[in-house]
UniProtKB/TrEMBL annotation:
UniProt-listed Gene3D superfamilies: Glucose-6-phosphate isomerase like protein, domain 1 (3.40.50.10490), Winged helix-like DNA-binding domain superfamily/Winged helix DNA-binding domain (1.10.10.10)
Domain HTH rpiR-type: 7-83
InterPro entries: Homeodomain-like_sf (IPR009057), HTH_RpiR (IPR000281), RpiR-like (IPR047640), RpiR-like_SIS (IPR035472), SIS_dom (IPR001347), SIS_dom_sf (IPR046348), WH-like_DNA-bd_sf (IPR036388)
Full protein name: RpiR family transcriptional regulator
A Pfam match: SIS
Lineage: Bacteria, Pseudomonadati, Thermodesulfobacteriota, Desulfobacteria, Desulfobacterales
Any one GO molecular function term: DNA-binding transcription factor activity
Species the sequence originates in: Desulfosarcina alkanivorans
GO biological process, one term: carbohydrate derivative metabolic process
PANTHER family: GLUCOKINASE, RPIR-FAMILY TRANSCRIPTIONAL REGULATOR
Keywords tagged on the record: DNA-binding, Transcription, Transcription regulation
Length: 297
């Protein structure tokens, strides 16, 4: 579990607490002591809880380095998300609501997450990651626990676009072997989602020591693997999920693969023709022509 005084947001508040006005200190102490309440509050609700004005809340947020309340709230959300256990998440998930309500809420939250992805991502940073994936070197894609689902999807999709892709599990200790014997110019992509398995942090540190290029795709600026990254992309979720929110990251991965494919020219057709030939020769995929030896009318 994250130590509160090591989190950037809590550090900012703690470092500023003595310089704040008395009302500002009340806000700071409330947020440090009750972050799980504060994260869901509007400026009005936070002001009322601390018996200060909304203007005081706005000044407080600016005083600790955030241009907008939404930026402060996202940082607080990332902190709370990392801290929450499964039981904590169950408490805030409202499992007693009718199924239709939960369905609509789930869809609405994912729409919010995608809107945030659309508004927040740095196009230049995405282009830089595609440049790295376009190098004619081995690419290793690694995930663990929830993020392995996304890592597997990314690696699988990349194999349809270029060669020399390896998908690896962070929990498999032989991953250390593969990275150690990989060429020094290899690219390693680590996909990391909250609550950030320690094995991915160790692998990030190893990649850094080996001098390979590390790309980190994650859901928060507080991801501990980011300290080792040469390039990174953050698909932050706006809401705190019960188990996970893979939609923004899968959308980002789709873009990266599609953009990479657009750069391959004729080589892409050659690569995919080889794959299709192999599928056909080895009877890998269902084909309607094989149904009773004829194509259905």
């Amino acid at each position: 579990m994250t130590t509160p005084d090591l989190h950037p947001l809590i550090e900012k508040i703690s470092a500023s607490i003595e310089a704040l006005t008395p009302k500002g200190r009340i806000l700071g102490e409330f947020i440090i002591s009750q972050p799980r309440k504060a994260v869901f509050m509007t400026t009005k609700e936070l002001a009322e809880a601390c018996e200060v004005s909304e203007a005081t809340v706005v000044r407080f947020v600016a005083g600790i380095g955030y241009d907008r309340y939404s930026d402060f709230q996202q940082a607080l959300r990332d902190f709370v998300d990392t801290e929450l256990t499964l039981l904590d998440r169950l408490d805030i998930a409202d499992m007693q609501a009718p199924g239709a309500v939960r369905f609509r809420r789930t869809v609405a939250e994912e729409i919010d997450n995608l809107q945030q992805l659309y508004n927040a991502l740095d196009v230049d940073a995405m282009e830089a990651v595609v440049d790295v994936l376009d190098r004619r070197v081995p690419v290793h894609v690694i995930g663990s626990r929830l993020s392995f689902t996304l890592a597997y999807y990314m690696g699988w999709a990349l194999t349809k676009v270029r060669d020399n892709i390896r998908i690896m599990k962070g929990s498999d200790r032989t991953t250390i072997d593969w990275l150690t014997i990989a060429p020094a110019d290899s690219v390693v992509v680590i996909v990391a989602t909250s609550r950030y398995p320690n094995e991915l942090i160790r692998l990030g540190k190893l990649v850094k020591r080996l001098g390979q290029t590390l790309v980190v795709i994650t859901d928060s600026a507080t991801c501990p693997v980011l300290q080792f990254a040469d390039h990174h992309l953050i698909a932050a979720a706006k809401h705190i999920p019960y188990l996970g929110s893979p939609t923004p990251m899968s959308c980002l991965i789709n873009y990266l693969v599609h953009e990479l494919a657009s750069r391959q020219g004729e080589a892409l057709k050659v690569h995919q023709a080889r794959l299709e030939q192999s599928y056909w020769e080895n009877d890998v995929l269902f084909n309607m022509k094989d149904l009773e030896g004829r194509t259905p009318e």
